[in-house]
Amino acid sequence: MFYRPEDGHGLPHNPFSAIVSPRPIGWISSRGADGQDNLAPYSFFNAVAYTPPQVMFCSTSAKEDRGDTKDSVGNIRETGVFCVNIVASAQRDVMNVSSGPWPREVDEFGKAGIARDACHEIACARVADSPAALECRMTQIIELAGRSNFMVLGEVVGVHIRDDCLDDGRVDVTRYAPLSRLGYRDYAVVREVFSLKRPGE
């Protein structure tokens, strides 16, 4: 089939996010200027540069108590920092709880019973038992075409790696099976890894 997004796809559900998959999940922790912690997963997330290390995530909807966006972007606008927590497959249920449309004053760490630790380089909480966490200083918030579409870019200024996720000095994703987002309400986990050398290596 072929369709133009502006004309509609004619299917029971939008296939776009199923086509662009799997996508890593950035479990974004942030803190507002009032000290309120927030934790929410975003599947429009990825690393975008090595030197300096940089990441991005996109928020694509809004809440009534946040105007044109959601709590994560609202908090980052106020404080300029956030932390990306990597989601292990064992954390899928508590991650899902944190995805709810909770009011601004709800602390998702408490709501889902998620242990938190302080970040080292920024004033923000992080998920204590996440396999890895990236402390970030926001560099840009870019308004994208469409309603309430914002891309947040950040420079990674601190990296946490859980010791049991390292094997001979390398991060071994099979030790925690990162959760990834597919289309619709579907997810997948990484359990099998293989290597390929580039031509000439």
UniProtKB/TrEMBL annotation:
It comes from Marinovum algicola. It holds the Pfam family Flavin_Reduct. Residues 20-174 form the Flavin reductase like domain. One of its GO terms (molecular function) is FMN binding. SUPFAM superfamilies: FMN-binding split barrel. Coiled coil: none annotated. It comes from the Bacteria. This is NADH-FMN oxidoreductase RutF, flavin reductase (DIM6/NTAB) family.
